[in-house]
Amino acid sequence: MLQQVMAQIAAVKKDMVILEKSQFSALKGENEKLAIEVQQLRVQLKDEVVKLKNAFSLDINLEKSRAKEANNVSEQDIKNTNNRITTEIANLNAKMEATKFESLKYFGATLLGSVTLMLGAYRLFIK
Fold first, then answer.
1. What's the CA gap between 61 and 83, in Å, rounded?
2. Rounded Cα–Cα distance for residues 15 and 7 (Å)
3. CA–CA distance from 116 to each of 77, 104, 106, 108, 119 (Å)?
4. What is the C-alpha separation between 61 and 65, in angstroms, rounded?
């Protein structure tokens, strides 16, 4: 009977060792499987980060080019406005010079006419 109990204990020990080894193998396999999955997720994450970085760079470059284009349009508008102002100032200066010349011409004519009338009156009244 003792031998039977010892034989049963030995069989149970053997079964436990086999069970332990199979559980260890299963855990080891599962661990390897999870490690592979983690590595795949890392690669996916890295790829997604690179995609996002590229997308952000593209968006930033696009916005930068839009800003430059808007700036160029604004500068061109400023240059056009400046040219119009310069042209208008030149036209006003030309008109002012023409008006000044006309005023001097009429002033001279008025002065000459007045002197002529004064000389005529002087000649009439004095002689």
1. 32
2. 12
3. 57, 18, 15, 12, 5
4. 6
Higher pLDDT, 16 or 78: 78
Tokens read off for 95: 């008109």
Q: Confidence class of residue 127 from pLDDT cuts 50, 70 and 90?
A: low
Chain-centroid distance of CA 68 in Å reads 8
Distances (CA, A) of 90 to 18, 56, 97: 106, 50, 10
Look-up of token digits 């839009």: 66
Q: Which tokens sit at 117?
A: 């009338």
- Using CA atoms of 55, 60, 64, 70 in order, give the dihedral in degrees to the nearest 10: 80
pLDDT in tens, 96-125: 999 999 999 999 999 999 999 999 988 888
Gap between the Cα atoms of 72 and 53, Å rounded? 28
